[in-house]
Amino acid sequence: MSTRHSFLSTTGLIRSSSSASTASFSPSTSKSTKSTLPSFGKQGKLRNFRNLKSLTLSTKPEPEKPKPEKPKVRGSGGVIPLGPTFIVGISIVISLFFIGSLSFAFIGAEDAPVFRDTLDSLADQNPGLVLIADNVDVDIDEPSVTLRWSVVACGRNLTLPGSEGTHGDSLCGIPNIPIDIYLDGAEKPEFSFNPAQLPFTSSNGHRLGIQNIVQFDGDHALDVHEARLYPFDTYQLATTLRAVAPDTSETIPIVRLLTITDTSSFIVSPSDSASYVVLSGSTDQLPSRDLELSIVRPGEARFFALMLFGVNWMLAHSTVAYTALAWKTEGIVNVLTYLALSLATLVAIPGVRSVMPDAPGYDGVLIDQIGFFAQMLLTGISTVVLLATLAKRELQRLEQNAPAEEFVKERPAPISKGLHKLRGSSTSVDFRHFHSLSRSFMGHAQPPTPIWEEAEPNISPNPFDARGKAPAAGFRPVGQSVGASASSTHLPSSKSLYSEWV
């Protein structure tokens, strides 16, 4: 069956549908297409070309919009990398875990009283008067040590009823007799205790241990021979105490002198021993108690002090590196950056020095001689060098950016009219006319001209022959034209020469 082509398909205005494209349309599509086809007349003319164009465009399939692709997770060797959200979250969890683990150090800080076991053994084996140093305050700048002493009696016969339980021990309490305490052989008592001054509690009848009644402070001089070795400084203290009953003037034996061993800045190592004194005018040996203290820095304080000492040296060395980099690099911006860092280091070094644990003043201790003073000196020199480098670069920049001096041509000075006419005339003026004129006036022969031009060949270059005659007709002086040579035989008058020159 033959296919009949329309006029538009044969002329190329529309394409004829192929079998494949025809098969791709559904029946419903073909029906709608047939209903919307334009009508043609017998002459094959198109009635509505616009409807045909819209029909052709509507039959084309619309392109599908690409769906957004999900980010692909790429791995290496079967291991998928962690995302940024997970990394931030796990970092926060680890930080909280670290802070919580450090907080466990405060658990158990309120343990049993430090002196309870010692007081129990004393109450059972050696009852008597005990002095306990609850606080040890070491002042390096004074230098001195202040001990806060508490008067304690251990034993049933020495304890004031209702005051048991001092320092966590049920057998030790406040003494039941008046006591005077003499410190370091003083003539007057350092502390006087009277149990009658203690009040009773209304609810249970117990005696309150008022600190100012049962405690006193003792100031002791400190041996500071090794103070310059901070943080490895060690201090020594020796003191003696004696207790006397003011009513009977009898000496009360002191069985122990106890002190705390750990303070915020030092570790105290006590050592007490029994002793006696002999007063002047008497041979009686009065019992007393001696105490020796060795005070050193804890290991943690030494560690942090040395670490800060090293940090300061690193900061000082960095300023030297800044100076070297500024010397090698070009430009002013880098030098300004290094100068700002050096100035910040100059301010930071004293700050780091001040945060050392219980550091002494700037008194020239060893750690300052080999550290702080040298660090400040090195940093200051580096800062000065950077300032000089900055000034040099700035001067060089100003020289390079300076505008070049413009050459201004000076205006020539005004000239006279006569000189202007002379310059405007011909420059080929032959001044030998004046020489010829002078020769005619003086009557002397003109000396031979040293250079002659040869006008004709085969003529001798000598302007004068052997008899001293005038030059031949073929010779003329250099710079003189042929016409001039011809007229030179007749010397002009002075008036004609002057008029010609003017």
TrEMBL record:
Region feature (Disordered): 1-76, 449-502
UniProt entry keywords in alphabetical sequence: Membrane, Transmembrane, Transmembrane helix
Spans through the membrane: 86-107, 303-325, 331-349, 370-391
Superkingdom of origin: Eukaryota
Positions with biased composition (Polar residues): 482-502
Residue stretches of biased makeup (Low complexity): 9-40
Basic and acidic residues bias spans: 61-72
Descriptive protein name: Uncharacterized protein
Species per Swiss-Prot/TrEMBL record: Phanerochaete carnosa (strain HHB-10118-sp)
High-level lineage: Eukaryota, Fungi, Dikarya, Basidiomycota, Agaricomycotina
